[in-house]
Amino acid sequence: MNKLIRIAAAGVMTAALSTVAQAEVTVKVAYDADPVSLDPHEQLSGGTLQLSHMVFDPLVRWTQDLQFEARLAQSWEQIDATTTRFHLRDGVKFHSGNELTAADVEWTFDRLKESPDFKGIFSLFTDVKVIDEDTFDLITSEPYPLVLHTATYIFPMDSKFYTGTTDDGKDKAELVKHGDSFASRNVSGTGPFTVSEREQGVKVVFDRFGGYWDTATKGNVDKIVLTPIKEDPTRVAALLSGDVDFIAPVPPTDLKRVEENDGTNLITMPGTRIITFQMNQNRVEAFKDARVRQAIDYAVNNAGIVDRIMRGFGTVGAQASPAGYLGHDPALAPRFDVEKAKTLMAEAGYADGFEVTMMAPNNRYVNDDKIAQAVASMLSKINIKVDLQTMPKAQYWPKFDERAADMMMIGWHSDTEDSANFHQFLSACPDEATGNGQYNSGNYCNAEADALMNASNSETDAGKRGAMLQKLEGILYEEAAFIPLHWQNLAWGARKGVHAEAIVNALNFPYFGDLVVDK
Amino acid sequence: MLAYLVKRVFQAIAVMLVISLVGFAIQDNLGDPLRELVGQSVSEEVRQELRDELGLNDSFLKQYTRFLGNALQGDLGTSYFFKEPALDVILKKLPATLELVLGATLIIVGLSVPLGVYTAIKPNTILSRLIMGISIVGISIPVFLTAILMIFVFSVEFGWLPSYGRGDVVTVFGHWDTNFATLDGWAHILLPSLALASIMLPLFVRLIRAEMMEVLQSEYVKYAKAKGIRPFRIYFVHALKNTLLPVITVGGVQIGTMVAYTILTETVFQWPGMGFMFLEAVNRVDTPLIVAYLIVVGFIFVLTNTVVDLIYGLVNPTVNLARMGA
């Protein structure tokens, strides 16, 4: 009898100990929005990519210092000018239990080429050629320097899982931008987490995938509950009160609070989104004169805006490419000199100034409307009278497409993390056929700059390419093609013990699979 | 009575037709839904294709008649964001909002009657002055500020109550998620209900107080007092009953307004109801959802007003609904 009790007691203790050892680590995350769909190809947005990094894995991914890290592709080599051979990792399983093969990559690539959002990024890619189960070639139509950049967008999908028809006869592979589809509600990837519960706009619950290939990772989170909290003060309050463990973004007004609060840590990083103003040369004759554009650049106090309006939560910029990008030229310094600006205006024959209209959104970028107000008042010092109108982004973008004001604000993040992308969309000669200058509301056009961009797009030597792109930034700076203000910083708030500083990056997709939480 | 109801139904249909027309007419000014559907670098050509697919390039009349045709079959369009029929989305969010309104109503009814009566009977005590003073503050501070203040006091500083969301909900009657079944649910609904009640409660306290004071001056109360009836009976049976008529009228209208106020409260508390959903829909230019929401809320207004009229008839025998229907 005694013995029995002892055995039972031992049993209870072991059970108790093992439950302690296996205590689930749950992390509650609050973002300002939740992913629009479980389909990784439906919308090219931060939310979708965030989800992709949790439920899927890319072939390669960016590290904190913007280098490439092998993920599903274990190695790769350039075979000829237009072909890169990738070798897949062994023993990678999808959530469904299917094995990852090169055929899945081919299937995913074909689907990406069909996606209205993603096909632009893959326009120069012609084919994925399967060599064997674990090997495939990624082929471009011309020598292309951004093969690996683009490979960060290839998150192989489980082709067997997405093949076939649903009960109501729809193709499971169907990619629908609006409306219901199999892929928007069901998911099978190779990623560290599976989606176990999802109510759109309310919460998504992720569970650790037991068969995850990356056993070397120290990540120990078993469960993530992602809740969208739209209101900035509420999101911060939820972190401070301990209702959630990790929040993003942290609004500039609350940075100090999160940092100084005992139970929480603030993590910040320079971001890659540049905020700019464009000066429409088709609407205002004076903007055709480079001296006037320079004068505006000299009149705008970038550092002051970062300091006073952004509360230090930005990196003062003088060009589009942030540090770490190939085209970033550290020699280009922000210009601020009101006297010089006045002289330039006088030289151009506009000493008495002129009147312009200006538009900016009020809910798209951090403090966008306040920045616009500050710029408007700075321009009044050189006698440019600004009629400013700010509006919600939903109304702003149609206005932007109409080029409805003389000066318009636009922020840009390069999808490829590459310098040429800024010029292609923001300052290249507008051309409907190629899509260049789609967001160039300034109508700035410089053949030499465009030639440099085109040459850089087929130059695979990083050194030569960097020189070209830096020269390009230099031209835009000299000519004051647009007014660069700053790169928005990124900020995350985490409860102490949640070691998020190791998993964040400038792209704002924290790698939750690698998140370590103190038990 | 029946004639009155039939008339009301026709009024309701007319009101909702007007709302749908207005909703449809303003949707072009809300922004371009495509912007929210596709990434920034997507070309104009692809946007146009999608616009054609969605039927956004058709004429206003064509779009509106198509909408009406579908609406007659119970289809108010499909939300771009939720990818579900707009009506389903709203009905799914409705319980959260109605429970919030219910919570606030309970607080208002439970507090406004005793407070209103007390301040009317004893207008000069310190407590009465305090109540009136606080009610002025309550009316003057916007709901979202009250809400944020309460979060910082009760969630962040004291840590007593959760700061956002609905917490543990229990599904009852098939589709209705309720907050009132668990302790966690009660804890989650308390702050939002208080915030929502913060505007209406002072209003009702003041309304009941004013009406009550007037009634207390009337001849029959004086007579009752002279007759020696117990004060409690005078106040709560004779006086209060006559005070309630205008209160019910205002209250009915205000319940509808409260549904509208939930937009602010729900946004601050991340309450997954239809007010929050509506604001999000406006931000995302989810036009089918916006129009559907306007119609549903219009319907709620018509409904509450009809019910109030019916109750009015019951409370006040001089109101003759049968005649009003004629």
UniProtKB/TrEMBL annotation, chain A:
InterPro entries: Peptide/Ni-bd, SBP_5, SBP_5_dom. It is found in: Periplasm. The keyword Signal applies. Residues 68-429 form the Solute-binding protein family domain. Residues 1-23 form the signal peptide. Coiled coil: none annotated. This is Peptide/nickel transport system substrate-binding protein. The lineage of its organism: Bacteria, Pseudomonadati, Pseudomonadota, Alphaproteobacteria, Rhodobacterales.
UniProtKB/TrEMBL annotation, chain B:
GO terms for cellular component: plasma membrane. GO terms for biological process: transmembrane transport. Keywords: Cell membrane, Membrane, Transmembrane, Transmembrane helix, Transport. The chain crosses the membrane at residues 9-26, 100-118, 130-154, 186-208, 243-264, 290-315. Gene3D superfamilies: MetI-like. It is a multi-pass membrane protein. It holds the Pfam family BPD_transp_1. Signal peptide: none annotated. It comes from the Bacteria. It is found in: Cell membrane. Residues 94-312 form the ABC transmembrane type-1 domain. InterPro entries: BPD_transp_1_N, MetI-like, MetI-like_sf. The keyword Lyase does not apply. Belongs to the binding-protein-dependent transport system permease family. This is Peptide/nickel transport system permease protein.
